[in-house]
Amino acid sequence: MTNRTVRLRRLRRTPASGGQPAPRAARGGRRGATPKVVALGGGRGLSASLAALRRITGDLTAVVTVADDGGSSGRLREELGVLPPGDLRKALAALCGDDDWGQTWSRVIQHRFQSKGDLHEHAVGNLLIVALWEQLGDHVQALDLVGKLLGAHGRVLPMSAVPLELQALVRGHDPELPDAVSTVRGQATVALTPGEVQSVHVVPHDPPAVPEAVAAVLDADWVVLGPGSWFSSVIPHLLVPELLDALVETKARRILSLNLAPQPGETEGFSPQRHLEVLARHAPKLALDVVLADQAAVPDLPSLADAAKRFGATVELAPVARPDGAPKHDPELLAAAYDRIFRMHGRIGPWR
Prior knowledge:
- The protein is α/β, with parallel strands linked by helices.
- It is 40% helix and 15% strand.
- The protein has helices at 3-12, 24-27, 43-53, 71-80, 86-94, 100-110, 124-136, 139-150, 187-191, 211-219, 230-234, 241-249, 272-282, 301-309, 331-344; strands spanning 36-41, 59-64, 155-158, 165-171, 181-185, 196-203, 222-225, 253-257, 290-293, 314-317.
- The strands form two sheets. A seven-stranded parallel sheet has the order 3-2-1-7-8-9-10, with helices on both faces.
- The longest helix is centred in the C-terminal third of the chain and has 14 residues, at 331-344.
């Protein structure tokens, strides 16, 4: 039996809150108990999913990638050696309520300073999170405290306890050498590469997972992966060994939420089924129950259904895009799709 297996079994017996009462917003429900949902990702994709999920469950945990190395997060990471706070901040903002308190704090933590000095483009929320990390010396406790201040409808956790460097093997990163495969380093660079990403990995190669994140996955009724930048926000969760083990072994049902369009640079020209094929290469043991996609974004349903079947999943089509035609998820429509899937696809756990 490996040390990782022993740790995973120990975490299965550990409450997702690390033995402490969960934040009040994460325990409340609409009428009694609600499904325990864990959403994994980063950036705008995860924010869209959280903005939808907070409408239908009172027990929501976000597990966020920590490989960002650009912008304000990258500067704080380089100067202070901390986890990049940007995607964690965005997740907290997405969990803010629609009342005046929630919307005011959402705007405040997303606010960026504009100046000609060192504070230029730093986000208020990034500085607040890092300040609490330094004060408390505990990533999870600090994020719980920020969530309490914001009245967040859920909990935000980093996927790993150390900042990660994302590296990718990219064909044609140098336009003058279109067939050459080279290693591209850094999430910001990978996200904008003009070449074709073949695979990604993280450094360190065996990063420690945050125990509360692993425990949340093992204790969930539903796990939602995606939408988001495929190589830089979605797949990195599968590169943290303990977190991947939890995703494979959890009794929760698993939803993969697909993007509305390929991302320029990172997944240029990808079909929906190719997204699944790439996911399978990085995590061949991962099983899924449902693949959610917008019908308008699926030109070849039989091929997508075949790719989903290899994960053991069925495809659910639903209108989840904003009505104005922008390739962005509408929170209300996405919430309706998740709610229907939760109700229709098996009934597990005491909440049903």
